[in-house]
Write a structure and sequence with these properties.
The protein has about 450 residues and is of the alpha/beta class. Helices cover about 45% and strands about 15% of the residues. The strands form three sheets. Strands 4, 5, 7, 8, 9, 10, 11, 12, 13 and 14 form a ten-stranded mixed sheet that branches. The N and C termini lie far apart (about 85 Å).
């Protein structure tokens, strides 16, 4: 045997001995760790889903949908928000007629697995009805996991990055003078950010009488938007609110995708001098590519995403840095699980969060928003929830607003419960007719929100 072969054989023998002594199965460190954590892991055996139910209530005339997930552990259940008021009954059907059968028997511990399997189960995906149903399921599973771990959900997401969640409140009204009064009152209440609108979205309340109604076109309930009235009024609104309320208050505005992209660019340029905190949804998802030109033409911060439900809709605006705030609706995209992924993506591109939080989100949904807001580094701002006493009686533990901050109930899970007996006192209406999206131009051409 020559020297080279001898060294080779010696090396093989040493390797074999080393593998025998330090293999994963015989590693003393691993055995020590397994013993150390055995009690913790044995304390969380598989947790089977035994029932999934969609429950509707309308305490203020706004349809709210709750998903309740029950498990084989006595009294352990979770609740999530699946509210899509424009299509409330189809969401209820998606939960009760499909998710219930599909999810029973699954291990509630495996949130990501359940999300992925449910997401693809319908084959066609990214639709708002199924996404909302999935969101309610997802939030309920996070609620269960938090309760089982005896921790608020934000702890499971990485813990707090801030002591509370800063918000903006709505100060829109029919006249500029009324808006100014609303902003001043909000400042006195402790808010640092206000959204200002004149005459509602697109100024429909002050646009006058359209020709299409005189001609008998469309429906009596249809609203009219005059673009000139809206654009001129918004410029004057910012000028006068800024002059009356000072430079310290942060001002937001929602275009609500109701004008042409070229008009949105011009409006943002005109508003630069008043230093908006952000201008929301300047273009529709169909006009996403215009965001590139908008970014090149103005320094006004842009918030986008209320209508997004497909990941491909927000991917380019974030990764190309065309926007400053991602403003998606958590139940529209499928819950906490995908929202955390969007937030992490935004962090890499200096895009901050500004989750949608209107009145047609239940207190459970508002709490879910706040848990993410507390945990992610690139939090921007949160739309302030409005919690009435009636809502609190149906949703014990609902978040509170103090000095312009959302503060959550620091209970395990999402921290909000659902009183089904109280909710049953306020059934959703038989007629599902939402008209605020029905807007037309002077000649009757439909205007997309």
């Amino acid at each position: 045997m020559n020297r080279r072969d001898a060294l080779k054989n010696m090396g093989m023998g040493f390797s074999a001995g080393a593998i025998g002594q330090f293999s994963l199965g015989n590693d003393p460190w691993k055995k020590q760790q397994q013993k150390k954590f055995a009690q913790a892991t044995n304390g969380l055996p598989p947790l089977k889903i035994t029932n999934v139910a969609g429950i509707a209530t309308a305490p203020h005339g706004i349809e709210l949908i709750v998903v309740k997930v029950e498990t084989d552990e006595p009294d352990l259940y979770g609740v999530g928000c699946a509210t899509f008021r424009q299509r409330a009954k189809p969401v209820l059907s998606a939960v009760n007629d499909y998710l219930a059968d599909f999810c029973v028997g699954m291990n509630a511990n495996n949130i990501e697995d359940i999300w992925q399997m449910t997401y693809q189960n319908s084959y066609w995906r990214n639709g708002p009805v199924l996404n909302n149903a999935l969101s309610g399921l997802d939030q309920a599973l996070w609620d269960i996991k938090g309760k089982r771990a005896n921790m608020p959900v934000y702890e499971l997401l990485g813990g707090k990055n801030r002591f509370a969640v800063d918000t903006y409140t709505h100060c829109g009204d029919g006249t500029i003078e009324e808006v100014i009064e609303n902003v001043q009152e909000a400042v006195e209440e402790g808010f640092r950010h206000c959204r200002i609108q004149l005459g509602g979205y697109g100024s429909t309340a002050i646009s006058g009488e359209p020709d299409f109604k005189e001609a008998g076109f469309g429906m009596e309930r249809d609203r009219y938007m005059d673009t000139h009235t809206y654009l001129q009024g918004t410029r004057e609104l910012f000028e006068k609110v800024r002059a009356a309320c000072g430079d310290r208050i942060e001002l937001c505005h929602d275009i609500h995708e109701r004008i042409q992209p070229r008009d949105a660019i011009q409006l943002c340029q005109d508003l630069e001098q008043y230093r908006p905190f952000f201008i929301e949804d300047p273009v529709s998802p169909e006009n996403n590519d215009w965001l590139r030109q908008l970014r090149e033409k103005t320094s006004v911060p842009i918030a986008m995403g209320e209508l997004y439900n497909n990941p491909h809709e927000w991917l380019e605006p974030i990764t190309n840095r065309w926007i400053d705030f991602i403003r998606i609706h958590i139940s529209q995209i499928g819950g906490i699980t995908p929202a955390m992924k969007v937030a992490r993506l935004g962090e890499w591109f200096n895009v901050r969060t500004a989750w949608h939080g209107p009145g047609d989100v239940s207190p459970i949904g508002h709490a879910a928003n706040a848990h993410i807001d507390l945990a992610v580094w690139n939090f921007g701002i949160q739309e302030a929830p409005n919690m009435s006493d009636r809502l609190r009686s149906i949703f014990p533990g609902a978040p509170k607003i103090e000095e312009g901050y959302v503060k959550i109930n620091e209970a395990p899970g999402i921290g909000v419960d659902f009183n089904e007996e109280e909710a049953a006192k306020f059934p959703i209406p038989d007629e599902q007719l939402n008209t605020w999206t029905q807007v037309r131009a002077l000649d009757g051409t439909p205007i997309r929100p």
